[in-house]
Amino acid sequence: MSMDTEPHDQTRGETTPVFRDAQAAPLSCNEAASLCTKAARGAGMSWGMAEEAGFAVAWLVSRGIDGPSHLRAHLERSDGRAWSELCPSVTPGLWRNAARQPNCPIILGATLCDYATLPEGPSSGRTLTLGPVSAPLLLVPFLAVLAHDNHLALTLTWETGRVCIDDQDVWLQRAARALSVLELDLALTARAARYHHPCATTKPKAHTTADTVAALNTLAMRTTVPATEASRAGAGSTLSDND
């Protein structure tokens, strides 16, 4: 497998690898997070939300899951959609997207964490209808943090299954199998639980594909494109930039 680096590309760090064929493309956790952050920004996310995407990917990668591929699938589906078509409309018990579009898992996950102690949030004994969620596995890192920080066991349910995020060591394996789909219509139930540690990290690298790296690099390159009259007028970013 051929590989080199292109240190002058501003969308990558000094050591981010560029793969020249269709073979497996191992990235370090930091490389994956950096590339995915820039790709998310290139796809229209604010820098703050793009950093949340990088966090989610790094969390999955450090546990042996191909986070970059899941983010690529989501970004390609959501590219060009307005903020209003990606974020949840937060009301007590109902977190569906107001435009009846799939919620972005990054925006949804970050918002759930922000609302953890608020009346509309995922407190013990409450069920939230999330509605359709794109690339639902990307929601898992946020739920794991939410469960850990607030002593909760969280259960995601959909028409044909459920995954409980709790203190059992096997829950992530189940989640990775069940949630590795393009979209699911989800509900989230919270209950009080004993303190539990997050899933231990297992693998230091993301074993993704060269095609995925190339697709993410293409999105990341948008962050270096010179401003045009359209972008100066406000086009070019479909998401709110309230970091």
Automatic annotation (TrEMBL):
Pfam family, one: DUF3726
InterPro entries: DUF3726 (IPR022201)
Protein name listed in UniProt: DUF3726 domain-containing protein
Organism per entry: Dinoroseobacter shibae (strain DSM 16493 / NCIMB 14021 / DFL 12)
